[in-house]
Design brief:
Elements (H helix, E strand, L loop, with lengths): L2 E9 L5 E9 L6 E6 L7 H12 L2 E6 L20 H5 L3 H17 L7 E6 L1 H12 L4 E5 L19 E6 L7 H13 L4 E6 L16 H17 L4
């Protein structure tokens, strides 16, 4: 199954307008919805490709531009993090909550039932997927190397609503083992349903084939685990 793509504009509760990339199954009605949360480098070609992959699986997938307040349409280079910093600094918890709500409500407005909506995110977006799972009703959430959860967002561990699958890189110097173990312990203490996967030879960004840190073996295994996770919880 291939996909058709579009861009939509969403009205956000704080009065801003957020553009989002949307991919739909090319034939037939979508069977589920997927929130795709970007890396720090914007809704770039790779994020759009991931969104398309979910559409090819039957999802109505939406990737909101989380930097819409500071850089609408921003697409940064993986070798120039300095260009990303002002946009990262412009994010706020309240703003991200409003963005999550806007994208989620758009999916609900397309007649997608809450238990049939998932969320996935990468790096910065991995943190946002974790936030979304504590804010809106999902069927499943997936977080790839979500930095910044420790310590400020640890209280959200006990608020996780749907099962969450989290991936980490054993070689990731940005998120050392004590941090992802702390996240896992907090989720267990909060009685959340969660799965933690650490790829020992993978670095930060290992899932993205546009980055120097791409790890094909870890990426292929993660894809299989993501699909199995979504299948078990009824989204595939």
């Amino acid at each position: 199954m291939s996909s058709s793509t579009d861009r939509v504009e969403l009205n956000v509760a704080d009065g801003t307008t957020m553009r989002a990339y949307v991919a739909r199954p090319k034939s037939g009605s979508p069977t589920a919805g997927m929130l795709v949360f970007q890396e720090a480098f914007g809704v770039n070609a790779w994020v759009r490709d991931v969104t398309n992959r979910f559409a090819a699986l039957g999802f109505l997938a939406i990737a909101p531009e989380l930097f819409h307040r500071t850089g609408p349409g921003f697409e940064g280079s993986y070798t120039d993090f300095e260009a990303v910093r002002p946009h990262m600094a412009g994010l706020s918890t309240d703003g991200l909550h409003a963005d999550i709500d806007a994208a989620y409500n758009w999916l609900r407005g397309q007649s997608i039932d809450a238990p049939r909506i998932g969320a996935i995110g990468f790096c910065m977006g991995g943190r946002v997927a974790y936030m979304a799972n504590a804010r809106v009703q999902l069927g499943a959430a997936i977080s790839f190397y979500g930095g910044g959860i420790v310590p400020d967002l640890l209280p959200l561990a006990q608020a996780q609503r749907a099962p969450i699958l989290m991936f980490w890189g054993g070689l990731d110097s940005h998120i050392p083992p004590d941090q992802y173990r702390t996240v896992a312990d907090a989720l267990t203490a909060g009685k959340a349903t969660h799965e933690q996967v650490v790829f020992s030879q993978a670095d930060h960004g290992f899932f993205c084939d546009a980055r120097a840190s791409y790890n094909e073996i870890a990426s292929r295994q993660a894809t299989a685990l993501v699909n199995a996770f979504l299948d078990v919880y009824g989204l595939l």
